[in-house]
Write a structure and sequence with these properties.
Helices cover 66% and strands 1% of the residues. The chain is mainly alpha-helical and 365 residues long. The chain has one domain. It has a two-stranded antiparallel ribbon. The radius of gyration is 21 Å and the shape is globular. It starts with 8 loop residues before the first helix and ends in a 7-residue tail after the last helix.
Length: 365
Amino acid sequence: MSPQTNRLVSLDALRGFTIAAMLMVNFPGSEEYVFFTLRHTKWNGLSFTDLVAPIFLFVVGVSIVFAYSKRKWDGRPTGELYRKIIIRSLKIFAVGMFLNLMPTFDFSDIRWTGTLHRIAFVFLGCAVLYLNTNWKQQAWVGAVILVAYWLALTLIPTPGIGKVMLEPGVNLVAWFDTQFLPGKMWQGTWDPESILSTFPSIVSGITGMLAGQLLQSTFTPNEKVNYLMTAGVFSAALGYFWGLGFPVNENLWTSSFVLVTSGFACLLLGALYFMVDILGKTKGTLPGIIFGANAIAVYVLGDILALFFYGATFGEYSLNEHAVNGLITMGVAPNLASLLYALFFVSVNFLPAYLLYRKKIFIKL
C-alpha cells in the first residue's frame, strides 16, 4: 500500500468505470435474463460487454507510460526496472490463478488462462517494449503484429482440416491451444484467452501507450484532446472496414477488433481528459475515480464477494435468485431485474473501494 501521487484523474476515471462495467457484465442477477448488449457476442460482432476487456488493456498501456516515463530517462539501472516488472506480472498472474481455483482449489481441473492472466502478459510485454523503444517503433511493432496475425488466420489452413477456418473450435488459434495450452479450456475445445490471441491483445496495450505518450507530449491540452479524438475515429473506422474481411471478434481478438475497440477507448479517454483534467468537472466521474484508484483490488474483491451474493443458498435459492424472482413477481421485466441486481452488486463493491479511497490507501500488486 502506498499514497497516491500525481495521477491523471481522467485515467483513474476510465479505469474505474471499466472495472465497474466488468463487474456489472460478469455478475448479472440471472444468467438467463440478460440484455443482448450486456452479453458477449457468441462469435463475430461487438456488444457493450465485448468493449470492456480491451478498454482495460488500453488503460494498462496508458498507465505504463505514466508509471515508467521518468524512470526510463533518469538513468536508473534497467535491471531493477525489469525485475519489478516481472515480479508485478507474476503477482497479477498468481492472483488470476487464485481466482480460477476458488472456491474448491481443485488442481486436477485447473485453467491456466483468464482476464488477469492476460493483463499480466500485456503488462509485461508492453512495459518491456516501452522501456526499449520510442513511440514510432511501438506503432510499427503493433502494426506488424496485427498484419501478421491477420495473414496467419486467413492464409494458414487449420492442421487436420486442410483449409482456413475462422469458426469456433476449428480455427488455427484453437488448434494451437490444443497442442500447447495446458489444463482445461473455458469452452472445452477452445479458450477466449488463448496463446496466439495474446499477441494482438498486447497491441491493445500498445495503442494505450501511444495515447499515454501523446498526453505527455508538449502539445497544448486542447491539441491533445483533438489528436485523441481524431485517432479514435480513424482507428474505429479502419477497424470497421478491416472487419468486413476479417470479422470483429473478441474470442479471436482479431486485428479489426483491436482497432475498433482501441478507437472507442481513445474517444472515451479524450472525452474524460477534456471534462476532468481540462475543465475540472469531476463530480460525475467521482465513482469511476474511486473504483479506478484500486482497480485490480476491486476486481478480486468482486470475485470473492460473489461467493456469498451468488453462491450461498438461503433455502432453495441463492441471494441473487431470491432478489431477481422477487422483482419479477413485483412486475419488473426479467432482464431489468437481472440488471438491477448486477448494479446492486457493483454498489456493494463500491463501499470498500470508497473506504480505501477516503483513507488514501491504494493497493498495488
